[in-house]
Write a structure and sequence with these properties.
Elements: H1 7-35, E1 57-63, E2 70-76, E3 82-89, E4 92-98, E5 107-110
Antiparallel strand pairs: 1-4, 2-3, 2-5
Keywords: Cell membrane, Membrane, Transmembrane, Transmembrane helix
Main location: membrane
GO cellular component, one term: plasma membrane
């Protein structure tokens, strides 16, 4: 009877696996060094990403109509919270000042009979 030994095939597979892991590790390390992801000098600190507020934005929103008319005015304030002015006398204006670069100005005036002429002012 022949003696079966698993040492030879296992030893060969083990060396191939170790060689493959070594080559992949070396390649990844070199690629990270080339593209600078390991370099701590180029990473911005957390305090550098804060908005310094040096360039405030000012938005003037206005609603015009014949003098003496009234309207329901829906708008977003400086903190992006919805505000509503019922029966605001026209002409109407509001100034928003913010240093948030993602702030959106939104204005929805409703002039006329509430619910009939303007469905979103019900």
């Amino acid at each position: 009877m022949k003696d079966l030994s698993f040492g030879g095939p296992m030893r060969r597979r083990w060396t191939v696996i170790v060689a493959l892991v070594t080559v992949v590790d070396f390649s990844v390390t070199r690629l990270r060094a080339i593209f600078g992801s390991d370099n701590q000098a180029f990473r911005p600190a957390a305090d550098e990403l804060e908005n310094t507020g040096l360039n405030p934005k000012r938005v003037l929103v206005e609603v015009f109509a014949s003098p003496g008319a009234a309207a329901t005015v829906n708008f977003l304030d400086e903190h992006a919270h919805p505000q509503r002015g019922d029966d605001a006398p026209l002409p109407w204006s509001h100034t928003l000042t913010t240093d948030d670069p993602t702030q959106v100005a939104d204005l929805r005036p409703c002039v006329g009979v509430r619910g009939r002429d303007c469905p979103h002012c019900v």
